[in-house]
């Protein structure tokens, strides 16, 4: 594992999912009775490697994050060998927000991205009035973010906490944000295409969409093999030892493998209406994670 840690310093060098609709990653199953006649249909999707009714996934994912909320940062340390902190710093530096940027951070977790954003603005500009709206579907996660922010020297006028679903940001007006970020959250959503459509809606013209997410396939075979071993043989065991919760960590590992590969996700971003520059993403740590982005024109 030391070899992976060393590779992070080269940051710039730094699913098998059978679906009917790759934009939603769901399919439709016909339920038949004992006589063989069909009597109902239901949409199904993946929950890790399991197939579950689409309408149940949100509750299942919600339970996972309720379970890990108090140890969310530790979870990310385990999932990424601690490298996620460097990725997030690079993510915000790549965003390069202006002094008065209005950011919406969806699936805001424990507030990592929001805190990095505020820190960047106050460190970079002598006079600034940034604002971040932290959105999460899980109240426990928002409570963690709130506690962290209250312990820092940022005025409450610079951040808002919003309990809402990434697939339907109904409390958020259209054309209202300069930037939209989502880090390590979109792979847990049932309908990725709906998340992207909502991101497009709430951004102002000229606004920037940025997503940081684990990638299902790494660019070097040796890295992929090492990360597979670590993911499936080590992470769930650590989850059991540290959090007494093997199942949640097992799901989180599996959810990475079910996420679209970089090329496919970039195409989904385009299909949502965004203009994508170049190939549309930057691999980090040889493709262990990637930053995707697009612009609303």
TrEMBL record:
Alphabetical keyword list: Membrane, Methyltransferase, Mitochondrion, Mitochondrion inner membrane, S-adenosyl-L-methionine, Transferase, Ubiquinone biosynthesis
Catalysed reactions, as listed in the record: a 2-methoxy-6-(all-trans-polyprenyl)benzene-1,4-diol + S-adenosyl-L-methionine = a 5-methoxy-2-methyl-3-(all-trans-polyprenyl)benzene-1,4-diol + S-adenosyl-L-homocysteine + H(+)
Subcellular location: Mitochondrion inner membrane
Binding site for S-adenosyl-L-methionine: 110, 136, 165-166
Entry-linked Gene3D superfamilies: Vaccinia Virus protein VP39
InterPro entries linked: SAM-dependent_MTases_sf, UbiE/COQ5_MeTrFase, UbiE/COQ5_MeTrFase_CS
Record carries keyword S-adenosyl-L-methionine: yes
Record's GO cellular component terms: extrinsic component of mitochondrial inner membrane
Domain of life of the native organism: Eukaryota
Bilayer-spanning residue ranges: none
Top-level enzyme category: transferase
Matching CDD domains: AdoMet_MTases
Entry membrane topology: Peripheral membrane protein
Primary residence: mitochondrion
Molecular-function GO terms, alphabetical: 2-methoxy-6-polyprenyl-1,4-benzoquinol methyltransferase activity
Pathway(s) where this gene product acts: Cofactor biosynthesis; ubiquinone biosynthesis
This enzyme's EC code(s): 2.1.1.201
Listed PROSITE patterns: SAM_MT_UBIE, UBIE_1
One GO BP: methylation
Keyword match Transmembrane: no
Entry similarity comment: Belongs to the class I-like SAM-binding methyltransferase superfamily. MenG/UbiE family.
PANTHER family listed in its UniProt record: 2-METHOXY-6-POLYPRENYL-1,4-BENZOQUINOL METHYLASE, MITOCHONDRIAL, METHYLTRANSFERASE
Role this protein plays: Methyltransferase required for the conversion of 2-polyprenyl-6-methoxy-1,4-benzoquinol (DDMQH2) to 2-polyprenyl-3-methyl-6-methoxy-1,4-benzoquinol (DMQH2).
Assembly behavior: Component of a multi-subunit COQ enzyme complex, composed of at least COQ3, COQ4, COQ5, COQ6, COQ7 and COQ9.
Protein name: 2-methoxy-6-polyprenyl-1,4-benzoquinol methylase, mitochondrial
């Amino acid at each position: 594992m030391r070899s992976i840690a060393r590779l992070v310093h080269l940051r710039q060098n730094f699913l098998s999912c059978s679906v009917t609709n790759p934009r939603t990653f769901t399919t439709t199953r016909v339920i038949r009775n004992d006589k063989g006649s069909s009597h109902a249909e239901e949409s199904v999707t993946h929950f890790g490697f399991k197939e579950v009714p689409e309408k149940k996934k949100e509750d299942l994912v919600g339970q996972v994050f309720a379970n890990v909320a108090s140890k969310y940062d530790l979870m990310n340390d385990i999932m990424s060998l601690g490298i996620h902190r460097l990725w997030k710093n690079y993510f915000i530096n790549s965003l390069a927000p202006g002094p008065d940027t209005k950011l919406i951070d969806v699936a805001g977790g424990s507030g990592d991205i929001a805190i990095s954003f505020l820190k960047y603005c106050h460190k970079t500009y002598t006079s600034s009035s940034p604002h971040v709206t932290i959105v999460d579907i899980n109240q426990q996660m928002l409570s963690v973010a709130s506690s962290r922010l209250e312990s820092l020297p940022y005025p409450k006028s610079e951040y808002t906490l919003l309990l809402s679903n990434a697939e339907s940001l109904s409390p958020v007006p259209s054309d209202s944000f300069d930037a939209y970020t989502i880090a390590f959250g979109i792979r847990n959503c049932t309908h990725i295409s709906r998340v992207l459509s909502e991101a497009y809606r709430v951004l102002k013209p000229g606004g920037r969409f940025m997503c940081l997410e684990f990638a299902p396939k790494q660019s070097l075979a040796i890295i992929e093999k090492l990360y597979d071993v670590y993911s499936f043989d080590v992470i769930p065991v650590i989850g059991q030892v540290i959090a007494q919760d093997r199942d949640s960590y097992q799901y989180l590992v599996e959810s990475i493998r079910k996420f679209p590969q970089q090329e496919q996700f970039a195409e989904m971003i385009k299909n949502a209406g965004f203009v994508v520059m170049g190939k549309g993403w930057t691999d980090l740590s040889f493709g262990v994670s990637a930053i995707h982005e697009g612009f609303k024109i």
